[in-house]
Amino acid sequence: MGAEPLLALLRELGGWPVLEGDAWNNTDYDWVRQMARLRNYNNDILISEWVAADITNSSNHIIQLDQPELGLPGREYFINPGDYQYREAYLDLMLNVAQMLGAPLPVALKDMTEVLHFETHLSRILTPAEERRNLSAVHRRLTVDQLGEEVPEIDWTQYLDIITWYNNHSDEVVVFGLDYFKKLVSLLEYTDDRTVSNYLLWRFVKNRISNLGERYTKVKQDYIKVLFGRQSQPER
């Protein structure tokens, strides 16, 4: 079946702009809705969300929200000047996969370069790991309404309704990334919708490369070799 199941799913998710070209329409684009739908396919992008025991009350399981992982293994890969080869390999991976899925090279080069710039800015607003060693210090227990007051630019009710499949979600959530969420909405205010959607769906596609067959796996292996020096994929 090749990449057709993935391409069909991308169309269902609003279309990947790099593949849609000028036909992509942002009139009704809602990044919160798209991000939440991707969470239902097990992708933590822009916001990390899970359910686990509350660290202040281990008998109580609760929705928890935090800053996300990035496409490269850590924020330092985007920031350190000496790590440029990793950023180049990451951009090559984006370009190769986008073209293999049907994007023209000029469009892929423009769009994916902007995605890399966006993710670089995103890496700079993440709280460094050394400042998060004591999770209790950044732990906040808030009602959904209180979270909405702290970060009103994000429709938290819509997000939680989608990721919980429209069941009743808890009135309270645990938040570890409040400062990050406030910086995120400021970053998104100055980022065009096309770049945001390209980034969200790129991260989704990156998570699915290993499901697409040998051609795609080889491209991914070239990237992994630069990052980790590993010659072959681990056994499934």
From TrEMBL:
PROSITE patterns in UniProt: NEPRILYSIN (PS51885)
GO CC terms in record: plasma membrane
GO molecular function terms listed in the Swiss-Prot or TrEMBL record: metalloendopeptidase activity
Annotated ranges, domain Peptidase M13 N-terminal: 2-234
InterPro entries membership: Peptidase_M13 (IPR000718), Peptidase_M13_dom_2 (IPR042089), Peptidase_M13_N (IPR008753)
Domain of life where this protein originates: Eukaryota
BP term (GO), one: protein processing
Family to which the UniProt record says this protein belongs: Belongs to the peptidase M13 family.
UniProt protein name: Membrane metallo-endopeptidase-like 1
Organism (species): Portunus trituberculatus (Swimming crab)
The encoding gene: MMEL1_1
